[in-house]
């Protein structure tokens, strides 16, 4: 049995995304969604059909999220970029996270070791010359491989 | 008559401000009003309005407040600020100027 309230709440939670979005924006969009649903019901659609039509009219959650972030603060833009990144690499999130953590651990370990040896210059050279470019390059290679795999699988 | 995307985008702010000049309103009602005023020719994408409203709010041209809809649901309303009135006046002058130029 279709539960309209539950579906709207789930949609709203998607818009809210639980991190960057303000709950107020999600509440505002939920009200808009209900208005669309009511109009579709007046046209004779069932709750389920009305909900589907309203969601289609209001747009995909990802589009709304990035649209809302346009022209916002720096934080808003960062959040929108994170959202886009998440949408593009959602299924590889764990792999990318593990990669980031591994490199962070290597950088931290090297830093601690070189600070212990009282070699701050060597630390700076290592970080700027090797570790940061190394992290960046390996991330780029990995993203490229993921993109290839995705386009090959599509 | 389908209206170009550029025209719809350029006219959005004056339209929103002019609708709010006639009284406080909310997102869905503003979209409906635009559709009515245009005789059905201007059908705004639902998702496009809120970023504009929020931008207008940041520019202090409009002010929002939470109210209650007829059915008891929480609803965000927008009202025109004094600086929004000034902006609307300036925008009307610009569009009147353009109208005059097009019909000269």
Summarize this entry quickly.
The complex is a heterodimer of chains A (154) and B (104). With 154 residues, chain A is mainly α. Chain A is built from 7 helices and no strands.
Task: Map the helices and strands.
The complex is a heterodimer of chains A (154) and B (104).
Chain A: H1 4-16, H2 23-42, H3 47-58, H4 61-69, H5 74-89, H6 93-116, H7 120-153
Chain B: H1 5-21, H2 27-37, H3 46-58, E1 62-68, E2 74-80, H4 82-102
Helix pairs in contact in B: 1-4
Keywords:
heterodimer; A: 154 residues; mainly alpha; elongated; B: 104 residues; alpha+beta; two-stranded antiparallel sheet; 4 helices; 13% strand; globular
| Tally of alpha and pi helices of chain B | 4
Radius of gyration of chain B: 14 Å
Order of helices and strands of chain A: HHHHHHH
What's the shape of chain B?
A: globular
Instruction: Describe the main β-sheet of chain B briefly.
Output: 2 strands, antiparallel
Q: What is the end-to-end distance of chain B?
A: 23 Å
Q: Which structural class matches the secondary elements of chain A?
A: mainly alpha
Uncertain spans of chain A: none
Low-confidence stretches of chain B: none
Oligomeric state of shown chains: heterodimer
- Number of beta-strand segments of chain B: 2
* Average pLDDT over all residues of chain A: 75
Number of strands of chain A: 0
Largest interface: A-B, 20 and 16 residues
| Spatial shape of chain A | elongated
Question: What does it look like?
Answer:
With 154 residues, chain A is an all-alpha fold. Chain A has helices at 4-16, 23-42, 47-58, 61-69, 74-89, 93-116, 120-153. Chain A has two domains: 4-74; 90-151. In chain A, helix 6 (93-116) packs antiparallel against helix 7. The longest helix of chain A is centred in the C-terminal third of the chain and has 34 residues, at 120-153. The radius of gyration of chain A is 23 Å and the shape is elongated. The mean pLDDT of chain A is 75. By secondary structure, chain B is α+β, with helices and mostly antiparallel strands. In chain B, strand 1 (62-68) and strand 2 form a beta hairpin. In chain B, helix 1 (5-21) packs across helix 4 (82-102). The longest helix of chain B has 21 residues, at 82-102. The relative contact order of chain B is 0.16. The mean pLDDT of chain B is 93. The A-B interface holds A 24-25, 27-29, 31-32, 34-36, 57-59, 63-64, 67-68, 70-72 and B 26-28, 45-48, 50-51, 54-55, 69, 73-76.
